[in-house]
Amino acid sequence: MTRRGWLLFAILSVCWGIPYLFIRIAVTDLDPLHLAFGRTALGALILLPLALRAHALRPVLRRWKVLVVYTLVEIVGPWLLLGHAENRLTSSTTGLVIAAVPIVAAVILTVMGQDRLGWRRILGLVIGLVGVAVLLGLDVHADDLVAVGQVLLVVVGYAIGPIIISRQLSDLPSLGVVTASLILAAVVYAPFTPFVPASTLTPSAVISVVVLAVFCTAIAFLVMFALIAEAGPARMTLITYVNPAVALLLGALVLHEPITLGLVVGFPLVIVGSILGTWGRAAPPPDASVCDAETGEVVLGEESPHR
Q1: What's this model's pTM, rounded to 2 decimal places?
Q2: Gap between the Cα atoms of 169 and 67, Å rounded
Q3: 35 lies in a domain?
Q4: How many domains does the chain have?
Q5: pLDDT digits (tens, 9 = 90+) for 242-287
Q6: Cα-Cα-Cα-Cα dihedral of 250, 222, 103, 253, to 10°?
Q7: 55 assigned to some structural domain
Q8: Is residue 307 part of a domain?
Q9: Could you tell me if residue 165 is inside a domain?
Q10: Residue 4 CA: distances (Å) to CA of 11, 59, 168
Q11: Of 60, 81, 92, 262, which is most buried by a Cβ count within 10 Å?
Q12: Max Cα–Cα distance, the chain, nearest Å
């Protein structure tokens, strides 16, 4: 990969590793619903002119039913659940649990009969799940179990979303899919925003929403396309294994979150498990690459490099 490619890779790794830090900061003052609405609405406003200029929305709207399902499992549910969960859990813990998405996706695809597990991948799934169990067993208290359940639901949604997009929407313009899904999510959130407790628009909360919408969604999406053009889509899968490290590091440095025994033991197990658990999957054809609407991450056939 070229120097420019590595630079783009580094930028994307940061953009997709920092959401959990800024969600954690934002929910100190904002209701999770207000946070999710602000992020989707602002991200949509940034990308909408680009999508209109590229004529990328009309083809997507023809499959609005599939788009609705995708948006619900990939954005509407997960972004709201993450906000609630991070009222209890640290950003480091949340980011590491989310790293188990490839493992869950592999299980779902196997159950659907669209994939099969060799011994190496089964070993990877076991190691990854043990890593999550160690993390939760050592770091999570009984009163955090609801938050843990919320993050695990996010993991399932993030695993299902890319499967929907690769099966039903992969031939559509990625810019159109992302923009339309953000608009739809904002429309779903909007009617409920007046009925939740008022949020306090502190400078840190406003900055967090702006960073999440601009850097973690809109700019990341544009950088993603540049990286695909520079290095090809296959290199994008490496970000799966970088994002949790970024989340853990920033949580410790910025929020002074402790580096616990659960993180020290669980982190390498989850990453090794994710690598082995997705080992040997056939590479998709070049035109099968689409992007994940949560942060604009590329979806390679059956798997998406989630944060």
Answers
A1: 0.83
A2: 8
A3: yes
A4: 1
A5: 778 888 888 889 988 888 888 888 888 888 887 777 665 544 444 4
A6: 0
A7: yes
A8: no
A9: yes
A10: 11, 32, 33
A11: 92
A12: 52
pLDDT tens per residue across span 150-207: 999 999 998 898 888 878 888 888 899 999 999 999 999 999 999 888 778 899 999 9
Q: How far apart are CA 82 and CA 247, in angstroms?
A: 14
Contact predicate 218/15, CB 8 Å: no
pLDDT tens profile 54-108: 999 999 999 999 999 999 999 999 999 999 999 999 998 898 888 888 878 888 8
Q: How many residues does the chain have?
A: 307
Looking at residue 77, its amino acid is G
Torsion angle (degrees, nearest 10) of CA 27, 29, 34, 36: -30
Does residue 304 have a pLDDT over 50?
Answer: no
pLDDT of residue 138: 81
Tell me how far apart the alpha carbons of residues 156 and 102 are, in angstroms, rounded to a whole number.
10
Domain range for residue 268? 3-300
Cβ atoms of 226 and 286 within 8 Å: the answer is: no
CB atoms within 10 A of CB 130: 16
CA–CA dist 43, 109 (Å, integer): 30
- 8 Å CB contact between 299 and 233: no
Average pLDDT over residues 134-151: 85
CB 8 within 8 A of CB 223: yes
Separation between Cα atoms, residue 98 and residue 93, nearest integer Å:
9
